[in-house]
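GCF C-terminal domain-containing protein
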Amino acid sequence: MFRKPKNRNIRQRQRELSDDEGGGGGDAKVKVEIKEESEQQDDNNESEEEAPIITFSKPKPPPAMLSFNQDEGVDVEEFKIKKPSHKKRAEKLAKRQKELEEKERDQKRAAKIEVEEEIGIVIKNSIKVTPQNVNHDAVEDDPIIIAAIEQDLETRSKFGGFDDIPDAKAVYEAKKRREQMRRDGTKSKLQNGGGDNGYIALSTGTTKTIEKVAHSRLIREDENDMSDEDGENAQEFYSSKSLLISEEERRRKEQEEFLRLEGDSDDDEDGDETAAADEEAKRRAQESDDEFAEWEKHQIRKAVSTQKVKQMRQENYAINNEPPPEVINLEDGEEDMDIEIIDAPVGLKGGNVPSCSQTSLTDIMEKLRKRVQDKQEFIDSQKAELQRKEANVEENVTLIAGIEADYPILREKYRTYQEMRLFIKDLLDCINEKIDTINDVENRIFSMWKSRSEKIMKRRRADIQDQYQRCYAAALGRTYQPSSDVMQRETNCNGRRASRRNQREKAGIQDRHHDGLSSDEEEPESQKFEYQRTIADGLELAADVFHDASEDYTDIGNIMSRFVDWILVDQKSFDDAYVSLCLPKLLSPFIRLELLDWDPLKDVSKPLHYYSWYQALLQVGTNKVGFDLENATIVGLIPAIIEKLFIPRLTKIINEQWDPFSLAQTRNLTYFISLLIEETPTLTAETKSIKNLLKAIMSKFKSAINEDTFVPLYAKEALQNTSTGCYAFLSRRFWSLIKLIQSANCFRQILSKEALHELIIDGIINRGCVLALQLSPKDSPKTIQKCNAIIDEIPTDWLPPMNSAPFCSLLSALKLISEANDSRQTSKIDKFIETVEPL
């Protein structure tokens, strides 16, 4: 480390670009750091201040050659002589100076030759720096200090102002003088006379001292400014390459060189002191870099004084003709500042007349109007917000009052909700407990009627097959030997036919009857008793299903009374809960128990409105005060039950129990369906349950046509031979087809015209009746009766038909029969042919 003597001024001048770096026409900025030091003199306490240094940025010329004659910037620099603070050091260096005086003169002569190649500083500003007068009386009586001040003034006089621009020689001499004074000390130099013409001679016997500023301007040194010990490097030039050495190495080289020179001078007088200096140098060299950096930063911070900054700013404002800013009270302490002053473009001088504002009275008035308008809009918005909040307050007050008034009603609603929740929960638990028993009893009765229907159809088909086999054997002239089962069936069949014949004779309708028109549904009395006993057992079980339950959960009237109370309290919540959709299913278990013995195919003497459940639903709400009997939910409850309970139940009966060849069943069925449709307006063709019902009817008819419309084919001789029984069997099958047509015509108010046309014309007449007419004798009166029977079963509203194609086969058979008989007997046939046959 360098020794850090007190009160030593160190000023550095930095340059950003070296002479080795190439570039074209770029701007270079020269930074000058100013250090102001106020030294307290012994008795007068008078401070010495330096003139401010101003930096101007100018475009840098191309760096082909570096010369002081080229304008690189406007620099005004002040060179201050460092004043040593140690007298002993000054005396030692003064002795050494005497020996080096002669060599310094030679160095100056050599520097004159080479100074033309150095960088010159051209000052273009017209600001003059007047030299300061030194008051010798106020300074210490020490002649060394007085001599230093005089030489400082002498140096400044050569740079008196911007008008007295120094030449390259003067700049070089001042620079070398400053470097020599830094290296050897001011007092010893002054004591030895100061050299020729007030300049300090350059040393030829010491090594070159590298400038401490890392980025200062690169100066090619004089060949004599070298150490005596290094004669080979006498012509060495400083360039950017030499400055690329790391900061640490350069510092240590400076320290070692400085301490070596100091040690050589000290060896002449005191060897012990030299050894101590060497030890001190080694110790300082080992100190951390952080301490050196802190010391260097402290020295730089002392380089600039506030007074110089103020003076420089005032001069800058005076040059640019600008008013000074507000006064800023700078602290007494010193601070680091990088000062860079750029020449402002010189404008027309107006005598420091302040610029006049361009604002007019109209602009001011407009701004005031806009401001008033903004304030008014703000006030209006606040008023609107106030009104809105007041309205909210009024609304809330009204709402609170309404809630307080509705509190009794809300309390009653809450009580009703809780009661209904508990009631419905208990009701569902009760139904779930009994529903299995109800389903078991109902299924038992349905199974009984289903098995009965299947047995009758199977028996009918067996009888037809047995009779056909007997006639077929007779037609072929073979002996028919039936089995015991066949004989048993024939015996039973003949007994049923004899029984029906006796009944018709008693009724007086035997003459109008034709074999085959009866449905053959007779059953033994034992079988009828079995059916009655099964139904009775089911009704007995149904009566005991809810014997352990309260009437509130088993009586339809009591159950509906609870829902009526709910409607009276809160109709909206009742509707929102979709209770109307759930009531039919909720009440269906109780209704089904009453319908266990209900058979619409056999008995229509007891319609639905005779049942207790129907009467209970009609009386719902009649005992409630204030209840609207026209309530949509209550009024639509019975139609909903019919649609969701009775129609599906009736569809099941058709699929399992209905026999299309039974004219009695068909008439009862069509009567009941027509009654339901008439009393229930909600039942339409688009209703899902009605669609399923109609599909079941059509399916049952098609099944009968495919399986039960058998027409036997015999030879003409067999038909003419009455002993074979073939003609009688053919006639029986024909009249059974006529009966099926009659059964289909019963649905004329239920089924569509197209559906009936498909069943009667296409399904029965063309497939069976026409074939039977073709096999029958043409001139027989019985054949004419058959033709008239077919004509009678065709609905009159179908004639004349829009399309006569389906009637072609029938017309052909009728024409043959008409031609074979007298026209008086076939008048009806002829008229039908004329009506149906197209022109």
